[in-house]
Amino acid sequence: MSRSRRMAVPLALAVGCGLFTAAPPAEAAPVTCDTTSTPYTYVVTYQPGTPASAVDRELAAKCGTKVAYYAEIGVAIASSRNADFQQKIGVYRAYSGGKDVASAVSARTSLGAVRTLEHTRSVAAAGDLSAQQWDMKAIHAPEANKIFQGSRSVTVGVLDSGIDATHPALRAAVDPRSSAGCVTGAPDSSPASWAPTTSDHGTHVAGTIAGEDPAAGFTGIAPGVRLASVKVVNDDGYIFPESAVCGFVWAAEHGFQVTNNSYYIDPGMFFCSREPGDAAAYEAVRRAIEFSTRHGVLNVSAAGNSGFDTTKQTTDPNRPHPVDSTCGILPKAIDGVVTVSSVGYAGTKSSFSNYGEIDVTAPGGDFVQTPPEGAGPACPLSTTVFGGRYGSKCGTSMASPHAAGVAALLASKFRGAPPWFIARLLEGEADVVKCASAETECTGPAKNNSYYGHGLVNALDAVR
């Protein structure tokens, strides 16, 4: 929502036969801003195309400073020490996730690593790990790799906690020139800004998409494509709106074909487009995602690990506010984003996976769907930052990169195809997974239901 600016002009008034000119207005008193309190970062919305100079003037007049400004979408990232900065700007135009967390608005105090069901089991890179990659077999990735491994002209952005570019399986895939840190809301291309610090979540995701380590017998879905590390997760495990906005704009401006988003935006689970504060966050992220889509990026997102129907929630488990049809989990709630649910080894919905509005499903593991001896752990195996090792993680965070990897193969095969076309192929070539009779909460037809969407992604069909 934008605010109109009113310019002061001299007034000429006809009075009788004479002319009266109003005296110039007195100069406004200088603004007194807080210079000692903790600064917080905000997303602030403007009319797209608003000049940067106008943004600078308003922020300065209301005790803020510009961190970044994305003029094409009219979103500024600002910092302020003033407790009333949001009120000064307008409660429907500004929002700070960091301030909400500090104010204990969020019920979550520690996120770990992007809400994945971590329990990472680390294994050495010795021997042949291919036998333990049941997830790859489930989507026919080994057969697909023999036909086509993807194109180096395709870049997949991993919006996450950073990628360990020194890992043997990822050294050839990570493109430093396309990588950036976005934690502050402003892109930083220095290697330290996009490297992992407190979490190996992004590294695990990256290995699934495009890892390859012949010595260890490990291969991802599309080892022929490039990866870009776009770090949006801070060291406390939070992904705030400003980081996501930066990440999606960076993807658009650097020609990515696909992004993977194994997270939801903090600090709440649901953002409501008509609530104060939430409205600014929702709108800023929506604009950034739609900007990336217009620039040829297909965004793929995890459904979430709360085990509920996202379309029927009436409360936010992380913040005390009601949820209705105007609310959604970001980024998956935005049109054009492919939402991925999770299945375990047995091929049925993971016990933790969200459901409701699902586009496709993919392997994310499940602790109660245990593979037979020698087939690998219950959670998908992939790269970790522990000295070139490998580890298993469960979650829709692990399912999403399987879909992103298949999307990368499709984008490699159909170069220049728009995102909607790649998404339709991803759905159309998926293997149908019907609702089982015991899955009483699964609704909808076989080819598009609330648990599995259009079905299990298929890498082989993507390259044939």
UniProtKB/TrEMBL annotation:
Keywords: Hydrolase, Protease, Serine protease, Signal. Pfam families: Peptidase_S8. The active site is at residues 160, 201, 397. Residues 152-455 form the Peptidase S8/S53 domain. Residues 181-201 are annotated as: Disordered. Residues 1-28 form the signal peptide. GO terms for biological process: proteolysis. GO terms for molecular function: serine-type endopeptidase activity. InterPro entries: Peptidase_S8/S53_dom (IPR000209), Peptidase_S8/S53_dom_sf (IPR036852), Peptidase_S8_Asp-AS (IPR023827), Peptidase_S8_His-AS (IPR022398), Peptidase_S8_Ser-AS (IPR023828), Peptidase_S8_subtilisin-like (IPR050131), Peptidase_S8_subtilisin-rel (IPR015500). Residues 190-200 have a biased composition (Polar residues). Belongs to the peptidase S8 family. This is Subtilase family protein. It comes from Amycolatopsis australiensis.
